[in-house]
Amino acid sequence: MSPETVDTIIADGTVVTPTGTIDAAVAIDGETIAAVGAEESLPVADQRIDASDRLVMPGVIDPHVHVGEDPFTIDTYQTASEAAALGGTTTFVNFAWEGWDGETSIYEPETTLVEGIRAQKEAAADALVDHSSHGVLATERDATIEQLEPALEEGVTSFKLFTAYEHGVSYGFMNQALRRIAELDAVGIFHTEDATVCDQLTEQFRAEGKGDPEWYPRSRPDYAEAMAADDVARMAQEAGAKYYGLHTSCRKSAEVLERYQDDGSQIRAETCTHYTVYDDSVFAERGNLPMIAPPIRKPDDVDAMFEHLRGGALSVVSTDHCGYKRESKEVENWWDSTFGANALQTSLPVFHDEAVHERGFSYPALVRLMSTNPARTFGMPEKGTLEPGTDADVVVFDPAETYTIDADENGSEADFSIYEGRDVTGRVEQTFVRGELVADDGEIVADPGHGSFVERDLPDWEQ
Ligand SMILES: [Zn+2]
Q1: How far apart are CA 134 and CA 95, in angstroms?
Q2: What is the three-state SS of 226-237?
Q3: Which helix (H) or strand (E) holds 135?
Q4: Omega cis (within 30) before 43
Q5: Could you tell me the distance, in angstroms and rounded to a whole number, from the CA of residue 92 to the centre of ligand 1?
Q6: What range(s) does the Amidohydrolase-related domain occupy (predicted)?
Q7: 38 alpha carbon to ligand 1 midpoint, in Å?
Q8: Is the pLDDT of residue 2 over 60?
Q9: What's the CA-to-centroid distance between 320 and ligand 1, angstroms?
């Protein structure tokens, strides 16, 4: 045993790893986990934290958030990372966009992907938690494909393409991008909804004056999501590329992806917290606030998310966090509302409540779905684990405390929560990012700027 002292010991808690739970203490020194074991076998610490009756888990790794991407969110790195820290998320991955010729382009159309990545790194100076970006390919240019290799040099090893919206691309271009992604051993990540189906239904409902939020999910149906997932996963299989399906919302999509996984193709997918908690009755209850694309679906789809999280077709739970004000949602017709909702601060307690407390998932499953799998899927070996030598990103969590979610406590710029008023069991008490306590009992206790950019590896999905 090392005779030296360490900075912090989190003692008497239940340590949750991806494979089990142990009653042990966690020793943190500097930015890393020094040891996990019986307290008496560990070095003396300057600070001792009593975690009795608490879980001690790796911090949540949220691989799908929108931060610093106006108009797709109003959250800055500072506001989003306050929400993250309060919610036990120690690393998030947002999006770095190239420019395109369109209304919602963040940058001038000529802006390259690498310029977009560097702009995000600069905007991140005030981040409190660690962060990285996926690159977004929003135009069908050879020059865009040529940006993939220099993007890897920037530490960005995954690339997003959309089948929908004005920055969506054709299957021909996706196929070209997938072949290059395969050559580079990078990861393709996909928003899959058939745009022609969704656009036609949207136009029809507008013409018919069906502006109540209950019509919204019918404008972007589950089969449109499954159709596009099928097409893009097939191209990824043909290219031999790693495919990661974003925000899987329904049984039909999950079944498509499961089918491609069965032959050993490199196909993975996430769902998001809201698809595991709500069905489409939420629109009658909460209006446009939970308008998210793809939409929240039917009760059977909620059950399907849990079946496929158990079965492995879905291996990650993310938030798709978008910060918006209530006023951008409280409009007469759903098509004039913003799409997206904030969840960084609530995802861990809400998913713990639903998956563990209500549906019997284990603590290690919670850690795999929210920490370990996203870290491994996206090339962050220092994250998502409490192995000695890795980053000391740690959450102390009380699995028994029940509280009511209140948007007045938002760290996000958003002034509402789709979980407002919901009682959840499980509360984040402390969040450490690389050894530093950043949130303590609902308060931010570190200065902005502690967070740093995570240079990601090319992930090995064979492991
Ligand atoms: Zn998103």
Answers
A1: 5
A2: HHHHHHHHHHHH
A3: strand 130-136
A4: no
A5: 12
A6: 55-438
A7: 42
A8: no
A9: 5
Q: How far is the CA of 65 from the centre of ligand 1 (A)?
A: 6
Residue 462: pLDDT band with limits 50, 70, 90: confident
Is it the case that residue 1 has pLDDT exceeding 70? Answer: no
Q: Are 44 and 398 in contact (CB under 8 A)?
A: no
Over residues 126-161, the pLDDT tens digits come to 999 999 999 999 999 999 999 999 999 999 999 999
Q: For residue 134, how far is its CA from the centre of ligand 1 (angstroms)? A: 11
Q: How far is the CA of 243 from the centre of ligand 1 (A)?
A: 16
Average pLDDT over residues 369-375: 98
User: Separation of 272 CA from ligand 1 center, angstroms?
Assistant: 10
Whether 463 has a pLDDT exceeding 90, the answer reads: no
**Is the pLDDT assigned to residue 397 strictly greater than 70?**
yes
- CA 66 to centroid of ligand 1, rounded, Å: 6
| Contact predicate 325/74, CB 8 Å | yes
Share of the chain above pLDDT 90, in %: 95
Percent of the chain with pLDDT over 70: 99
Instruction: Please say if the pLDDT value at position 162 is more than 60.
Output: yes
Tell me the CATH number of domain 59-377, given options 3.30.1850.10, 3.40.50.150, 3.20.20.140, 3.30.700.20.
Answer: 3.20.20.140
Find the 359 Cα to ligand 1 centroid distance in Å: 26
Using DSSP, state whether 125 is helix, strand or coil: helix
64 CA from centroid of ligand 1 (Å):
6
**Mean pLDDT, all residues of the chain:** 96
**Residue that has been written with the tokens 């499980």 in this structure:** 426
The alpha carbon of 69 and the centre of ligand 1 are apart by a number of angstroms equal to 11
Beta strand extents in 171-276 (DSSP E only): 187-191, 242-245, 267-272
If one compares 4 and 160, the residue with the highest pLDDT of the two is 160
* CA 67–ligand 1 middle distance (angstroms): 10
Q: What does the pLDDT read at residue 263?
A: 81
CA of 198 to the centre of ligand 1 (A): 17
Q: Which residues pair with 254 in a beta bridge?
A: none
- Strand 65-66 vs strand 321-322: parallel, antiparallel, or unpaired? parallel
User: Separation of 211 CA from ligand 1 center, angstroms?
Assistant: 23
C-alpha 132/C-alpha 151 separation (Å) is 12
